[in-house]
Amino acid sequence: MNAVTRRDAVPPMPAADALVRLVARIRHEIPLTAAMGLEAGTLAGDSLQLRAPLAPNVNDKGCAFGGSLASLMTLAAWALIELRLQARGPRCEVYVQDSGIDYLAPVWGELRVTARLAEGEDWAAFFAALDARGKGRLTILAQADHAGMPATRMRARFVAKRALAKAT
Amino acid sequence: MNAVTRRDAVPPMPAADALVRLVARIRHEIPLTAAMGLEAGTLAGDSLQLRAPLAPNVNDKGCAFGGSLASLMTLAAWALIELRLQARGPRCEVYVQDSGIDYLAPVWGELRVTARLAEGEDWAAFFAALDARGKGRLTILAQADHAGMPATRMRARFVAKRALAKAT
Fold first, then answer.
1. Interface confidence (ipTM) of the complex
2. B36–A31: do the CB atoms touch at under 8 Å?
């Protein structure tokens, strides 16, 4: 594989404004994320962050509602894949297949979730499978931190399927 | 163990109005559940159902948002334990420890989730542990159905801890 093919197979992380546009689209298309106050966080290296204020996501104990954390982790993982697909193509539908979540400690403030590829996963293999078979799978890790410690951890498998071309 | 002790150890399923009151409390204390349109479903045998309309929980594909389904399954499982604790005591805090979810098929209408004890679990052992050590664990299954088929399945572990008596 030469350098040009390699670059084509693994697009660089998109710019931060791509995440801001994606979050605006998510808030428009999934009303519950607007109710959560979903916001774009940072894009750093190979990770993607989403945030939400505590007030609309608080539970009966005064800390973050587990359902909000689960939603935010799933959205961050989905967004990590979606942004790469937007940068390179093909146009796909991306679905979560299954997820496992550990709730380690409460989150007593703003919800901040970071998603990254799981160990052993790589974008080149994902795009190669998509190109060859129209379908690719990825395992993503997402984590919410509080006071510098992990508060919730998710491991989730996603599948991307090439969207059918619209009949014109 | 005689019949009286047994009845005390395992209280019967609470009446439907207890679930209606619990859902009103959840909607008041967890604002996102009001945004979801959370409603009490049926209490049948040893299972508890929660419901929510599709409109506030729709995703970009027109079916139910995975985060809403995950939230609803976690709430139904939590409510199953909370109602039994209300009926028998002691007063406890109930937390989710970890959960695994399989997303099998989309839900194209009202979200309906049913929670029940996992195989091998029983209320008597849970209350015995609570009475002896102030702490009990339970594994709960929750499922969303669509068109008579399972759409999402959750297996989650919860811990209940006896609440400390308030200083007066």
1. 0.89
2. no
Q: What is the pTM of this model?
A: 0.90
**Helix/strand/coil (H/E/C) assignment for every residue in B58-87:** ECCCCCECHHHHHHHHHHHHHHHHHHHHHH
Whole-angstrom distance, CA of residue B102 vs CA of residue B94:
23
Supply the CATH classification number for the domain A3-162. 3.10.129.10
A75: left (phi over 0), alpha (psi -120 to 50) or beta: alpha
Query: Nearest residue on chain A to B67, judged by CA atoms?
Result: A71
Domain boundaries along the sequence of chain B: 3-162
SS3 A67: helix
CA pair distance B157, B10, nearest whole angstrom: 20
Q: What is the pLDDT of residues B129-143, one digit of tens each?
A: 999 999 999 999 999
Cα–Cα distance for residue pair A78/A120, rounded to 1 Å: 18
Chain Cα centroid distance, residue A41: 12
Provide the 3-class DSSP secondary structure of residue A90: coil
Least CB–CB distance from A67: residue in B67, B95, B102: B67
Q: What is the pLDDT of residues A15-51, one digit of tens each?
A: 779 999 999 999 999 999 999 999 999 998 789 999 9
Cα torsion B22, B26, B29, B31: sign: negative
Residue A18 contacts B where some CB pair is shorter than 8 Å: no
When CB atoms are compared, the residue of B58, B71, B103 closest to A31 is B58
